[in-house]
Inverse folding.
């Protein structure tokens, strides 16, 4: 069901304490400047930054990743969102297919879900055995220690959302044709397993919250506030990122600006 608006344009069943779009945009703007400083620092020093975004369905992982990456060079900052493993990948070491996507020097990589699928959706939905889960929970801290020891800056975020809020977001996806693609058959089944996902999450956090790769929980019941909180935290975990900017000078054009023209039979389509 969608959210009806009153004559003032406010959503009648909206959360009155949720951050509005204009206030969010105003708060995000200086953080985008800081994210660009971070990206220059990463490139200048050849650092490797890896950020893992995890959470329940509808928690807001995609929006958070977009808030981080939309102002950055896509050649430097890339998002990894893997599909379900292939038949060959199912026979490999579990972490193997993720290794190819780790950052190189000067890169920022954002994982939209990650190897933690095994401790969450795979466990709850029965896509792996309990032995495989226990093996994962033992190996994940070791795997991450190797990443950190090799110099990768690893950050892990769990986006929290209450079931009532999750239900509203599921309903919005169902009613909005532009968001309906986000509802998969797995989502519909997983929706009924909120408590089971919580139990699996707690076991995952207990086993994989380590000194070298700690988890950070961020409240995403208000997604805009959650994005701002996450970005501020991420920026706060890194040293002063101030790198001198290269001064860019434009030489004067040798002639007045030219119009784009075509000598062949092709022409631009008429503007609407």
């Amino acid at each position: 069901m969608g959210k009806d608006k009153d004559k003032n344009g406010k959503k009648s069943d909206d959360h009155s304490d949720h951050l509005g779009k204009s206030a969010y945009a105003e708060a995000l703007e200086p953080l985008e400047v800081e994210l660009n400083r971070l990206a220059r620092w990463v490139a200048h020093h050849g650092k490797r930054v890896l950020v893992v975004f995890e959470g329940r369905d509808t928690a807001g992982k995609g929006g958070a990743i977009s808030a981080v990456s939309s102002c950055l060079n896509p050649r430097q900052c890339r998002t990894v969102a893997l599909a379900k493993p292939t038949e060959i990948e199912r026979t490999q070491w579990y972490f193997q297919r993720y290794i190819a996507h780790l950052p190189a020097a000067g890169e920022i990589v954002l994982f939209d879900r990650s190897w933690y699928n095994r401790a969450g959706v795979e466990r709850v939905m029965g896509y792996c055995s309990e032995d495989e889960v226990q093996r994962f929970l033992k190996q994940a801290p070791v795997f991450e220690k190797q990443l950190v020891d090799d110099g990768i800056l690893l950050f892990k975020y769990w986006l929290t959302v209450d079931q009532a809020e999750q239900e509203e977001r599921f309903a919005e996806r169902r009613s909005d044709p532009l968001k309906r693609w986000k509802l998969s058959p797995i989502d519909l089944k997983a929706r009924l397993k909120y408590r089971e996902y919580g139990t699996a999450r707690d076991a995952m956090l207990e086993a994989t919250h380590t000194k070298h790769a700690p988890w950070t929980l961020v409240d995403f019941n208000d997604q805009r506030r959650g994005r701002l909180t996450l970005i501020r935290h991420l920026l706060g975990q890194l040293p002063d990122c101030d790198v001198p900017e290269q001064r860019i000078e434009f030489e004067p054009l040798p002639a007045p600006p030219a119009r784009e023209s075509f000598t062949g039979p092709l022409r631009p389509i008429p503007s609407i």
Notes: DSSP finds ten helices and five strands in the chain. The first strand starts at residue 48 and ends at 55.
